[in-house]
Amino acid sequence: MVKFIPLNICLMMTKPQIRQTIKEQRKHLTDQEVNETSLEITRQILKLELFEQAEVVFLYAAFETEVQTIYLDEQARIKGKKVAYPKIELKTGAMDFYATPHFSELQPSSFRSMKILEPSPLQHRQIIPGPKDIVIVPAVAFDNQGNRVGYGGGFYDRYLSRYPYIYKIGICMAFQLTEAIEAEFFDIKMDCVLTEKGYHLPF
To answer: What does the mean pLDDT of the chain come to?
Structure first.
């Protein structure tokens, strides 16, 4: 497994520098490493009482070497839960989630240089999170206080600010977890950060 940059170095780095460094490290991950780590993270989420109680699980469609969510999608549906995925509106900067009957209904789209899968507002129903639902949040990096470095679009921060009651679980590989990220006033903290090595609750 790729090792994360030393914490004392990371503390001196800006968000763009952290983003560039971690994205470069992720390029060296093998498919086996990504899948094994994703399965372990899925197993840990399945143990959460919050997952059992949730009626809807808000996921993201992983791309490239992100933690894969397809395994959690499958388990959530087996347990009779609804699964929703985000759709980004580039013109307005808004993001909303839509319930999808099956992962295969997601459609290819592009954000900057990234190829992603999204639901279709014409085919799928927009869904608002309930107080017992959970959202699984991606990032390039997290820290032990629940702060995150995303991809620079601010979509999740804006969305989560609208629904502060939903329980936010950030997931990443252990090398993406650092000691501290400089947070800005508009950044939304996670309630829990989860890696293949365990849980990290903000202090």
So the answer is: 89
The pLDDT tens digits for 152-173 are 888 999 999 999 999 999 999 9
* Domain assignment present for 1: no
Residue 100: C-alpha distances to residues 123, 126, 136, 182 (Å): 9, 9, 16, 35
Amino acid identity at 70: I
CATH value at residue 139 = 3.40.50.10420
Taking the model in full, what pTM does it have?
0.90
Contacts of residue 129, defined as CB under 8 A and 6 or more positions apart, other chains included, come to: 56, 58, 97, 135, 163, 165, 166
Tracing tokens 């608002």 back to the chain, one arrives at 128
Q: How many separate domains does the chain show?
A: 1
Pairing of strands 134-137, 125-126: unpaired
- SS3 of 74, please? helix
Domain that holds residue 95: 7-200
d(CA 102, CA 180): 37
- State the pLDDT at residue 185: 82
Q: List beta partners, residue 195.
A: 198
Alpha-carbon span 16 to 78, nearest angstrom: 39
> Is 2 domain-assigned?
no
